[in-house]
Amino acid sequence: MKELQHLNKYFFKYKWQLIVGVSMTIVSKIFLLFTPELIGSSIDIVNEYLEGQVTDIAVVKKELLINIIYIIGAALITGVLTFFMRQTIINVSRYIEYDLKNEVYKQYQILPLKFYKNNRTGDLMNRISEDVGRVRMYVGPALMYSINTITLFVISIGFMYKQAPLLTLYTIIPLPILSFIIYKLSKEIHKRSTVVQQYLSHLSSSTQESFSGISIIKAYGLEAITSKNFNDLSETSKQKQLSLVKINAFFFPMMILLIGISNLIVIYVGGLQYINGEISLGVITKFIIYVNMLTWPVATVGWVTSMVQQAEASQKRINEFLKIIPEIKNTAQEPSLINGDIEFKNVHFTYNDTNIEALKGVSFKLKHGKTLAIIGKTGSGKSTILDLIGRLYDIDKGDILIDNIPIKNINLTSLRDSIGYVPQDAFLFSDTINNNIKFGKEDATQDEVIQAAKYAQVHKNIMGFNKTYDTVLGERGITLSGGQKQRISIARAIIKDPKILLLDDSLSAVDTETEEKILKHLQNVAKDKTTIIVSHRVSSAKNADQIIVLDDGKIMQSGSHETLIDTDGYYKNLYLKQLSESAK
Ligand SMILES: Nc1ncnc2c1ncn2[C@@H]1O[C@H](COP(=O)(O)OP(=O)(O)OP(=O)(O)O)[C@@H](O)[C@H]1O
């Protein structure tokens, strides 16, 4: 139960609803227990009349009528209270589920990129959906059934013991056995349903993957193999389902069997006691009703125990993520005003997980409003420089200064707010083009969206779609070309009007003519912005104020386009190669 203590703060938050819910549960069970008592006394009065102890039929009728009215009244009150009990306790469990989901999601948001590399998306999704769902079962149903059982058990056993102690003892003997069997069954059901769940998610993720990669499957003629894989997987999934159905089928027969045994004991032992004149017929009737009333709550003890164990395991998994302290800490509480000067001083950086030293003593200085182009072979560390400016990682050695202040002393939110980042593979949400661009500035006007799209040279394409800016992208909508995606991603960064604009090879999928136009517009838009353009093309870099050439994490060359094409080296070679290619 140690892990579940995390939920105590939520129990405290909803204490009043819980207190009301628990009280209603107790009162509703008290009313429920009126019924066996009233039925028992009705049987007794009829029996007394039959045996001649009561002779006036009017007395019998009156008592029966009163009992019937009481039974109906008690049933009504129990019904109303049960409704409100569910409305409070089950509602609280939903509130806590909602709060816990938000807590986990908020934690996901502050965890570093490394966390996402080390954990699979499916696992992240499971903890926020299935695990939280299991914890809810502990907060709601488990709590409710436990109170139910305790109340019913304490009161009815009290009543029963007062009337026939020996019979009570015999009657409750099968109950712990029932509880134990249900516990074992619930554990097995849980084990098998987890396997079924795993196969189902396996099946759905492999189906989803084959739909996403349908063009590759068709191009390579792999339809038959994919169908066979699907068949095999769904066959195994079916077998697992059947094994679950089998164990589930035991549940109710087992309960009916144990209720039957308890009833037999009551009738047999109670019958003997009746013959000996120790108890009345009414007592036997009451006991049969009590046994039936108690069986389900007692069975739930086993069920609840297994539910609590599952919740504990799920909360443990949730806590593992909640306990992670993000490495990147925001030490500056006050917002920082960012101007856009960037300086790298002998920066060294190694990715912990791969141990790859991506930057080995990189130094450069960029004044605000200026443009830096970074050129270099693949894997030379270009994207890493951009990630470090956004402080997605902290460096090992050296200094990164923003406006002459060490990056760690800058307010993290202000820093990221002042950056417009266009990643290497443009990611667009399954939403309208409008909303995808507005992601950079939520309150942007339509004119601003159009202007940004014009600067990014994508306005004409958008106007060519039937629903123009309301065109939905992604799974439910149209598929854009790589170049269109990149340009929408650029529009998103432009609309943000950031102090620092980072373009990570984001013009690679557009033709050189469009690239030229975008860069020209960027020169105007980015007049007061510090811009860094990562590229493999000299055409993207040539107008930059400063160019650096990276090789294996080190700066190999730096200078302006003019000086670099006059110097033998990587840049000049690349320039000549690309010049001859464009002349072909
Ligand atoms: N998140 C990461 N975790 C571990 N290693 C990484 C990570 N990102 C990059 N690397 C490694 O760091 C090195 C530099 O990568 P980086 O992405 O900065 O290169 P790049 O110059 O931008 O390459 P490209 O031109 O192909 O985009 C590479 O060897 C890469 O494998």
UniProtKB/TrEMBL annotation:
GO cellular component, one term: plasma membrane
ABC transmembrane type-1 domain location: 19-310
Membrane topology: Multi-pass membrane protein
Compartments in which it is found: Cell membrane
Protein name per UniProt: ABC transporter
CDD domains in the record: ABC_6TM_TmrB_like
ABC transporter domain segment(s): 342-577
Classification via InterPro entries: AAA+_ATPase (IPR003593), ABC1_TM_dom (IPR011527), ABC1_TM_sf (IPR036640), ABC_transporter-like_ATP-bd (IPR003439), ABC_transporter-like_CS (IPR017871), P-loop_NTPase (IPR027417), Type_1_exporter (IPR039421)
Keywords from the named record: ATP-binding, Cell membrane, Membrane, Nucleotide-binding, Transmembrane, Transmembrane helix, Transport
Entry's transmembrane regions: 16-34, 64-84, 142-161, 167-185, 250-275, 287-308
GO molecular function: ABC-type oligopeptide transporter activity; ATP binding; ATP hydrolysis activity
UniProt-listed Gene3D superfamilies: ABC transporter type 1, transmembrane domain, P-loop containing nucleotide triphosphate hydrolases
